[in-house]
Design goal:
Elements (H helix, E strand, L loop, with lengths): L38 H16 L10 E3 L12 E6 L5 E11 L6 E2 L2 E2 L3 H24 L2 E3 L8 E6 L2 E8 L2 E5 L6 H19 L6 E10 L2 E9 L6 E10 L9 H14 L4 H13 L2 H4 L15 H25 L5 H31 L1 H10 L5 H27 L5 H32 L13 H12 L4 H53 L8
Parallel strand pairs: 3-10, 6-9
Antiparallel strand pairs: 1-2, 2-3, 4-5, 7-8, 8-9, 10-11, 11-12
Helix pairs in contact: 1-4, 2-3, 4-5, 7-8, 8-9, 8-10, 10-11, 11-13, 12-13
């Protein structure tokens, strides 16, 4: 939903059958970046960590490490999971890792400190179930050859540094494996992976824990691998450390670091050409990597960007055009005072709504409480859907309140009209967001991608693309986006007008009831004291 425009329509004139200026809060790609501000750096650490372990740069002495696919519900799971494969295919030496960037520390959760035994075992158990379910699906279903899509595919260790990729779809199990590897071998390794994870989750198999940290300080990179206590998660000993400028890092580390930075930027929407240039700049000046973090000292600047300008200009044009049409329709000389008033209030409402949306998104990704809320409301694995929806709802509420207050203070409407307008605008915004979120939830529950994969099993960009294509009913992502955007706008307008009409109806009933009571009082008074007429 990060490329989808959600409109919060706020009628600017109480009682008017048409909204003067619909304040459009557009959440395009730039507006949703709050969710991904720290994500590129996190991906750099995770990708570099995986490359260092699987290529034998660290933890030497034994068979090469093979990466597994840990279960990561809402992004709160294990970052890295590795296992060694013996010559006969037997799995041993399980290792659980966590990647951190900069000064970030292990978090404290309800189940205990991150990477402690109490935190790790449940996540190993859920990962074991994923591999067990894939093995069962492979035993009783069709096996298809092809590259899996999305983030729900599973890496299956085969030994010799090789892995297979397995994904369950509606049409069967999609397998991408090296040439010559049989179905039976992959099935055997799926079962073996599930078994070793279950044993570790039950405390019957000891496993290693490592904290992988990458820092960019001054003109140096610092890559540090620290051994942790599996029981408590407390740090014990640094097992490997690589520090220095890019040119001074070990030869085997340099291409891995460069590739991790570039791929992380590409994965998060950066143009490949720009990603290449930005990667070279980061390698020359490591401090540039820290500038991707906008959620700390400079959090107050979030929202003051090109998207804010576009949002304000759109609201200004809409409000100005409607105000001029109203003045021209009234005949006579154009009164510029109300036109300028409506334009100014619409611009202010749009600006406040846009900044509010961005700030809410920052809070949802920069604070533990916010991340818990976003994860709880996420549609399956699509966390950005929940973040975008909550940001849009907050934008609609804020812009509605600002517009209503502005018109009240300028004398255009009374207090009752301002309350009705704010309520109607908020209802429209919430209804619009609810429709979009509900549509994505429906796609996640019953939709199927073109490859036969259940949409609910996808996440991130793959989830969004598949959902929009599903809405398009064969017309592609563009048609699906247009359908969803148009539907959300219509529902928002309908809800806004419906709440406004209901409020006016209730007010009319209250006024009629008050008038009847007044007449009854007058009649009773006249009955007790009949009028006296004195002759002249």
């Amino acid at each position: 939903m990060d490329d989808l425009a959600l409109n919060a329509h706020v009628p600017l004139i109480a009682g008017s059958p048409m909204p003067l200026g619909a304040v459009s809060v557009t959440l395009h790609r730039g507006a949703i970046e709050a969710w991904r501000m720290n994500a590129p750096k996190g991906v750099v650490g995770e990708r570099l960590m995986s490359d260092i372990f699987t290529r034998g740069v660290a933890e030497r002495g034994g068979a090469p490490w093979c990466a597994l696919s840990p279960d990561r519900p809402g992004g709160t799971g294990i970052d890295g999971l590795f296992v060694r494969v013996g010559r006969n295919g037997q799995l041993h030496s399980l290792m659980v890792t966590e990647a951190k960037f900069g000064s970030s520390r292990l978090g404290k959760t309800l189940s205990g400190l991150q990477m402690s035994d109490a935190w790790t075992r449940p996540r190993l158990a859920t990962t074991a179930r994923l591999y067990e379910d894939a093995a069962c699906a492979m035993e009783r279903g069709r096996v298809l050859v092809g590259a899996p899509e999305g983030s729900n595919s599973l890496l299956v260790p085969l030994g010799g540094g090789h892995s297979a990729n397995v994904q369950s779809t509606a049409h069967g199990v999609l397998v991408d494996a090296p040439r010559g590897v049989s179905r039976h071998a992959i099935l055997k390794q799926l079962q073996a992976t599930s078994s070793i994870l279950q044993r570790a989750a039950r405390g019957k198999l000891a496993y290693r824990t490592r904290l992988f940290r990458i820092e960019a300080t001054g003109d140096e990179f610092n890559v540090c691998i620290e051994r942790l206590d599996p029981k408590t998660g407390a740090p014990l000993k640094i097992t490997a450390q690589f520090r220095g400028s890019y040119a001074r890092l070990p030869r085997e580390i340099r291409p891995l670091l460069k590739g991790a930075i570039r791929q992380a930027l590409v994965d998060h929407g950066t143009d490949p050409g720009r990603a290449e240039g930005l990667t070279r700049e980061v390698l020359r000046n490591p401090r540039v990597l820290n500038q991707l973090d906008l959620t700390r000292a400079r959090w107050w600047r979030v929202g003051f960007d090109r998207g804010l300008v576009l949002s304000v200009l759109g609201a200004t044009a809409s409000a100005g055009g409607r105000a001029l049409m109203r003045e021209v329709g009234a005949g006579g000389k154009i009164d510029w005072k109300p036109v300028l008033r409506d334009v100014g209030i619409a611009a202010l409402g749009a600006g406040v709504g846009y900044v509010t949306a961005r700030q809410v998104q920052v809070l949802l990704v920069a604070t533990p409480a916010g991340r818990n809320i976003a994860s709880a409301l996420a549609v399956r694995g699509a966390s950005t859907t929940a973040v975008g929806a909550l940001g849009s709802a907050a934008a609609g509420l804020a812009s509605s309140a600002v517009v209503a207050l502005g018109l009240y203070l300028s004398g255009a409407i009374d207090g009752r009209g301002a309350r009705v307008m704010a309520t109607a605008g908020a209802a429209g915004a919430v209804a619009s967001v609810a429709l979009s979120a509900g549509a994505f939830a429906t796609a996640a529950a019953v939709g199927t991608a073109g490859t036969g994969t259940a949409i609910g099993t996808l996440s991130g960009a793959a989830f969004k693309s598949a959902a929009l294509a599903w809405f398009g009913c064969g017309g592609g992502m563009a048609v699906g986006g247009a359908v969803l955007t148009g539907g959300a706008a219509l529902v928002g307008i309908a809800a806004s007008y419906g709440v406004g009409a209901l409020s006016r109806h209730l007010d009319e009933r209250a006024q009629a009831r008050l008038a009847r009571l007044s007449l009854d009082v007058v009649a009773a008074h006249l009955g007790r004291h009949p009028p006296r007429f004195s002759p002249r």
